[in-house]
Specification:
With 554 residues, this protein is of the alpha+beta class. It is 26% helix and 21% strand. The structure holds flavin-adenine dinucleotide.
């Protein structure tokens, strides 16, 4: 469907900066830009406000994922490596973006991830360089000595408020299998097992919106920051190679749909995330020239890297039935327990409703050939067939395990120029021999952990995939059947040094070939970090906006 001519759109005004997407990155960027009252900032967000209780009660992710109120409801293309299955690919569609529906795990990744970026020619992106940007917004509940954590920032980091005997036993079993207990995953080396730290404040979810945008919007005297929700950005408009305007629709697909436009004096910051940012670049004429031509879009910059380099963590989810110990499955099944859980949360902010899906994690090597841990476990005192389906009617735990540094590369592209159309998302899981081998080794390590003495008293029985899967071939088939995203797509608009021809951005996150446009979100990562991706994304936002302000002063 062709876009209406720019002149048919109502102009809503002119701003110094327009931030597209109020997600994990966009909220940090908008906060830092608007902290100067002289700078006019507009934030455009496709989702609505977070006026639903399940955005705030941590366990609400169970209801938010797969719900159009909260989730874009993307799906991947059928994945050859997963036996032809197409996966649900959740992304937050609400203020706070994916931080409003995610699992709240606070994880920075490994020092080696960022040192690897620096070695690719990305000066200023090594671990020592980026650590101050993690710390800049951190508000750790009890920062230990050593300077790796700090209190006083906007972004609260707390310890989980619920303990499960089964999870303690799993940590003991992991230790018996050679995975040491460690106090903190966020030191640059996360190998070992620990309880995850979480982004919650007194048992409530803290989203990037709640931490960075809402407080500013509530200030009566602040007039330089404006948030528009339920507006779907369609494209960025350029004049003489400079980003000058953004075109968007209010109420897309509703009878009151209105086509709008805003002018930009400074820069446009694209923070729509690893799925939507490449789509918006393509809609704006920045992408592979051949691909754009096929879609009927005029090419402004021939940038074949746009939408390529998709990396994600595929979690394999073996499930073990247990006896003689409580899990959320049976706790939740007892109807009389539910009001008690609600009361406990309301009165004390403790109990199962404060639960992130995973409380205990472990990082380990699938083989000694890896210099640092290449597997991450998320142990969950619950089990289900898939997210969105109900909990199993028996006690069980899930030992979700993912390859932290997959070598498979996928892509995200426009299916057509029609703004209503769904994107083509192809992560290409298990596309390399290495990724297939890591999956098989991960399943063997899982069985080794579960077979250790500390778990024996709970008589674990492998429910999925089941003991029948023994050969490497059978284990790989099981991994393909049990594998699903752990929601960490990154890399689709990657930054890179001058000799990286696939890099869409330079090391200061500026889009090559145009001016006045930066991308600041999870899509910029050249390689995926070894852990959950929200906090690396917020670090990128903190560093990206600092560079933007520095460049503006020049
Ligand atoms: C279910 C789930 C669980 C996860 N668990 C964890 C976890 O426990 N720990 C962790 O570290 N990471 C986790 N992640 C990953 C993490 O949340 C993401 O990596 C991170 O939030 C990405 O940030 P972002 O700013 O790049 O994108 P997002 O936070 O997704 O923000 C993008 C924003 O742009 C908006 N947008 C998109 N297109 C348009 C458009 N055309 N017009 C206007 N607005 C638009 C979106 O609505 C969204 O608000 C999880 C993610 C999910 C989905």
């Amino acid at each position: 469907m062709p876009d209406p001519a720019s002149t048919d759109r109502r102009l809503i005004g002119s701003f110094d900066y327009v931030v597209i997407g109020a997600g994990s990155a966009g909220c940090v960027v908008a906060n830092r830009l608007a902290s100067d009252p002289q700078t006019k900032v507009l934030v455009l967000e496709a989702g609505g406000l977070d006026d639903w209780i399940w955005f705030h009660i941590p366990v609400g992710y169970l209801f938010a994922i797969g719900n159009p109120r909260a989730d874009w409801l993307f799906r991947t293309e059928p994945q050859a490596g997963l036996g032809g299955r197409a996966l649900a690919y959740p992304r937050g569609k609400v203020v706070g973006g994916s931080s409003a529906i995610n699992a709240m795990v606070y994880m920075r990744g490994q020092a080696a991830d960022y040192d690897g970026w620096r070695q690719r020619g990305l000066t200023g992106w090594g671990w020592d360089d980026v650590l101050p940007y993690f710390l800049k917004h951190e508000d750790h509940i009890a920062p230990p000595p050593g300077g790796l954590h700090k209190a006083g920032g906007e972004w609260r980091v707390e310890h989980p408020r619920v303990r499960w005997a089964i999870l303690d036993a799993i940590r003991d079993a992991a230790e018996a299998a050679g995975i040491a207990k460690i106090p903190d995953f966020n030191t640059g080396d996360n190998e070992g097992s620990s309880y995850f730290q979480v982004n919650q404040r007194r048992g409530r979810r803290l989203s990037a919106y709640g931490a960075f945008l809402k407080p500013l919007l509530r200030e009566k005297e602040r007039r330089n920051l404006r948030l528009e929700t339920r507006v779907h950005v369609e494209r960025i408009v350029f004049e003489d190679g400079r980003a000058k305007a953004v075109e968007f629709t209010h109420g897309l697909g509703t009878p009151s749909e209105e086509k709008l436009r805003v002018e930009v004096g400074g820069e446009v910051v694209l923070s729509a995330g690893a799925v939507a940012s490449p789509l918006l670049l393509e809609r704006s004429g920045i992408g592979s020239g051949a691909r754009l031509q096929g879609l009927g879009i005029d090419t402004l910059v021939d940038a074949p890297g746009v939408g390529e380099n998709l990396q994600d963590h595929l979690q394999i989810r073996p499930v073990y039935k247990v006896q003689g110990v409580k899990t959320l499955n049976s706790d939740y099944a007892r109807l009389w327990r539910r009001p008690l859980m609600a009361l406990e949360w309301a009165a004390l902010r403790t109990g199962p409703l404060t639960m992130a899906p995973s409380q205990v994690g472990a990082f380990a090597k699938s083989s000694p050939q890896y210099a640092t841990a290449n597997l991450q476990y998320h142990f969950q005192p619950l089990s289900l067939d898939s997210w969105g389906s109900g909990l199993h009617p028996f006690d069980a735990f899930t030992a979700s395990v993912c390859n932290l540094r997959p070598t498979s590369r996928g892509s995200v592209h426009l299916r057509s120029a029609d703004v209503h159309d769904t994107p083509v998302i192809s992560p290409n899981y298990f596309n390399t021999e290495e990724d297939r081998q890591v999956a098989v080794d991960a399943m063997k390590l899982t069985r080794r952990i579960v077979a250790q003495a500390p778990l024996a008293r709970f008589r674990p029985e492998e429910y999925m995939p089941g003991e029948a899967a023994q050969s490497d071939e059978a284990l790989l088939k099981a991994a393909a059947e049990l594998g699903t995203t752990i929601f960490h797509p990154v890399g689709t608009v990657r930054m890179g040094g001058d000799d990286d021809s696939g890099a869409v951005l330079d090391g200061r996150l500026r889009v090559r070939g145009v001016s006045g446009l930066r991308v600041i979100d999870a899509s910029v990562m050249p390689t995926i970090t070894s852990g959950n991706t929200a906090n690396p994304t917020m670090m990128i936002a903190e560093k990206g906006v600092a560079m933007l302000k520095e460049d503006a002063r020049r």
